[in-house]
Amino acid sequence: MYGRKVKLRFFFIFLIAVTLSLTIFLILKSLEENVVYFKSPSEIKTLSEMQQKKIRIGGMVKTDSISIVNKELSFVITDFKSEINVVYSGLIPNLFEEGKGVVAEGFLKDENFFSATKILAKHDENYMPPEVKAALEEK
Amino acid sequence: MFQLLEPNRIFSITSKAPKYVLLLFILVVSIGLTEALILSPEDYKQSHSVRIMYVHVPAAWISLGIFSTITILSIVGYIFKIKNFFLISKSLAPSGFVFNVIALVTGSIWGKPTWGTWWAWDARITSMLLLALFYLMYLIAWRIYEDKEQVFKVTSIITILGIINVPIIKYSVDWWNTLHQPASINILSKSTIHSSMLVPLIIMTAAFALFSLLIFLMKYNTELIKIKNKGLDRL
After folding, report:
1. Contact A40/A83 with Cβ under 8 angstroms?
2. What is the pTM of this model?
3. Which residues of A touch B75 (CB under 8 A)?
């Protein structure tokens, strides 16, 4: 039905698409370490050696863990398997709250202790009016 | 079927349609903005800053949609040698690029008060920046190459390279840890956005789609006039 040229062009495009997808997939797979924006506390615990360079740790701010002493904020990041203590002084984003997502950027002092130089709030995918939230909490 | 693609007939549509599309756009965008900025509720967590979503998300969707459309048109156009598809792609690209930039800029404005940063090199944001660069390459290629055959080939290659990035943008938030939150609107599972916020989001998406259609029709009309002036009767 179609000419040989058309079939060849179709095959050509098909080959390009398959080859490129595979290449990109392999590259991304091998770069996984760098593609992730942050590590979880559990991943920090499994690190074979202490990292001296700047890293990011993400998870939930543990409930009732926030305390402020001498303008220094300390809290616990948890992924519900492992925990890590964080100290920080500086500006915090509006959405920083207990029980909510957080990403802390800074340096690892030891495997349980992290000194943050920057705090980012990571919010979740839930959007709803306050009344609905209140109704949900009542249930 | 290809009789329908005769330039004069298309031209009679593309030269008249814009004013109706413009009217429809103004109507839908005013309903959308009223819904988004006044009638829709504030978010329990983010309060009023959630309203940036009604521009940010539709802009991102439209830019992804247009890029996918351009890619399909370019590939089919390349295989079957349909020149018209390339002209349609060329006319679609500018609005896709503009919406991509709008998504990046509004995301940045939204990120500062909520996340605490203007920019993060996370997978979603970086891949979206990459899409903008592909758009830019695509647009520049049309300006660089004079020869039609050459420009069709180069732009097809750019779209094939760029389309691989599209699923990466979509699934980046599921595959890797990102600062960007995962999708709230899911086709297969329950959406995590309240219906009172979903409605303005959909209306704004329709408004942006109409705007893209408007710009497309005007661009495409110009392309047809260029062909007419060259005295060519076929696309």
Report:
1. no
2. 0.90
3. 13
